[in-house]
Amino acid sequence: xxxxxxxxxxxxxxxxxxxxxxxxxxxxxxxxxxxxxxxxxxxxxxxxxxxxxxxxxxxxxxxxxxxxxxxxxxxxxxxxxxxxxxxxxxxxxxxxxxxxxxxxxxxxxxxxxxxxxxxx
Length: 120
Known about the structure:
The protein has helices at about 1-10, 10-25, 30-50, 65-75, 75-95, 100-110. The chain is an all-alpha fold.
């Protein structure tokens, strides 16, 4: 999850670096990459629950602070768009689209994270 959060909170360059690493593993570990996309989906699902004030349903409780921070900076619609992008990427990978193009496309569809400004 650290890698996912790093990509979520990182720059577009960081996201492309992540996409390169993940897509580079695809031919040798197709199932592992698809499982990592499932982790992405789980993380963003938890973000959606938080955006809907359903914190008690969060699965990745150890990531609660990070998830709350993200939800304070983006809209619920952006969270839903992220979930759709991840689902589409898995769909494309299962149909043998270029892993790098599919994953880079997903990275570009994720919302950019404005700087977090704590209250006070």
